[in-house]
Structure formats: structure tokens, C-alpha cells
Amino acid sequence: MRDLALLPKAHLHLHFTGSMRVDTLAELADRHGIRLPHVLLDDDPLVVPAGARGWFRFQRMYDAARACVRSEADMRRLVAEAAADDAAEGSGRLELQVDPTSYAPFVGGLTPALEIVLDAAREAQAATGVEIGVVVAASRMRHPLDARTLARLAAKHAGDGPGQVVGFGLSNDERRGTTAEFAGAFAIAHRAGLLSVPHGGELLGPEHVEQVLDHLRPDRLGHGVRSGEDPRVLERVLQDDVPLEVCPASNVSLGVYAGPGDVPLRALVDAGARVALGADDPLLFRSRLVDQYRIAREAHGFTDAELADLARSSITASAASPATRARLLAGVDAWLASAPAG
Ligand SMILES: [Zn+2]
């Protein structure tokens, strides 16, 4: 077995607040005099039984954590640490999702909030060697006109250079909002050349995936893990060649599946889906990027050759430059050619 932290990969599903280290959260809460739900600092803050609808608990804790990020220095620190942690796990390309709305009041508005993240991403890329693209994510909990405002802001910073915006997403509770009403925002993002990377098909099933496909024209799907519950919808995902950002630990923590072995990772890969594993919110799920590959190995029996294929999928599904892709893919070949340890 080869060391999964040395396997070059791309990380395409990680949220800004959710990437925070637990120690950092504790420190920021202390500095700002905020009392956190103590469970947030526990070993396992979230795991709920399957079917117990972990979302509301998740949302409460996520909001509490986000409330601790209230200065430019805090924001810069999160980006720097996310990049450093990704680098330690073999990620050569990070696409970090941020909704600047919550931080805007502390730094003078939406534009500075995003520009701080972009500038911090440039610095973190230089410091760690991890190439970072930013995904601006709108929230389903807000009005679709807010999503358009964010799309226009994202469009202004569109590009594939260091610390530029590469994509536009839609996150938060899938059961809220009407997917079709966000089509206008995605059209703005699309015209600016941004990737469409909305969430869909985690809390809700294939009918939701279909709505997202119809209205938001995704280049990748955040989760989409339940597409296979309707063979016709999975066929559309395959036909349209939409990679799925599958986050097994997130699925289990939110009660979508009973255990890591119940996530239909093997079935999706066998069906021909392009899967990019992601950690989603390691702060709450206590499971980082390498842990997702470990789940594939230990709960689904993926061989090192199959794990290398998962890493290749993550790289080719990313918006990395051709040179970065080639470098990372060559690294995957070298990993597989190296002698297994133990
Ligand atoms: Zn997510």
C-alpha cells in the first residue's frame, strides 16, 4: 500500500469556513469573546444516525464557526491554513469555495471580502506551491437577486491565474430555494467563462440533480452522489460528462448514508462517472482530503491503481492549467510506479 498523502490530487470541494482547523476556531472564538457550542471543539461534533437529518445541527454549528471569522487577518489565516493543509495531503490544486456575504460587514463590503480571499490565495499559492482557484458560491437561503450580485462580482475577477475566480457555485440546504430561480445568476457566471459548480443530489435525490442539470448547466456537480438512484438521471450525468465532487465523510455525517461503505462510490465509478473526492467541511466532519481516499481504499476496496484513477479524475475535472495538469498527472504515474511500503 502506498502513502495516500503522497498521491498527487486536486481538491475541488472545500468550503472556506469549513476548512478551518479546530485549534484556529478555538483561538478566534477566544480572541473575539465568542462562546462556541462546546460540541464544536469535541472529537466528533456532527455524526448523526442515517435518516436523522443532520442538516440543522450542521447549519447551527457552521453558523457559529463562521461568526468567529470577523477580520481581514482571520480571513487571510483561513486561506493560508487551508492551502498548507492541502499541501500536506498531496493536493496540488485547490478550488476553494467562498460566499463572501457573511464576512462583508467586517471588512467594508462584498468586494473587499472577495478581494481579501483572492489576495490571500495568491500569497498561499506562492507559499505552498498549491495552485488555488476560488469558487464564489451563492446561498440557496438568500434571494436569487443576491446570487446575481455575487455572480457579477465573481465575473469581474474571472480568470485562471493565481487567486482568480474560476467558478460559481450554489450551496447551503438543497431543500431551500427554487433551483430554476438561480438560472439568471449562473447565466452571468457562464458568460464570464466561469465554471458552473452548484451543489445538488446530496440531501435530495435524482430529481434534484435533474433540476440542477436543466437550469444551472453544471460543469461539475457538488456531490451528485445520489444520481444513481435513477438510472435515467445517471445516464444524463454521464452523457453530459459532468464530474461528481463526491464527499463520503460529509454524506455520512449528514445522515445521507449509514456508513462510509454505504456511499455508492464504487457503483458510480463502475458506471463510468468521473469522481473527484472532496472533504467539504473538515472542521465539522473531522475528515480531511486523504481520509476520503482512505475510505475508498478501506471501505470500498479500491486498489492503488484505482485510487490513482480517482486522483487523475480529480485533476482532469479541475480548472487547472494544462501545465499543472500534466505535472500532477505525471506525479500520479510516479506514485503508482513507486514501491508500495509495508
Ligand atoms: Zn459543500
TrEMBL record:
Pfam families: A_deaminase. It comes from the Bacteria. One of its GO terms (molecular function) is deaminase activity. InterPro entries: A/AMP_deam_AS, A_deaminase_dom, Ado/ade_deaminase, Metal_Hydrolase. Residues 8-335 form the Adenosine deaminase domain. This is Adenosine deaminase. Belongs to the metallo-dependent hydrolases superfamily. Adenosine and AMP deaminases family. Its cofactor is Zn(2+). NCBIfam families: aden_deam, PRK09358.1-5. One of its GO terms (biological process) is purine ribonucleoside monophosphate biosynthetic process.
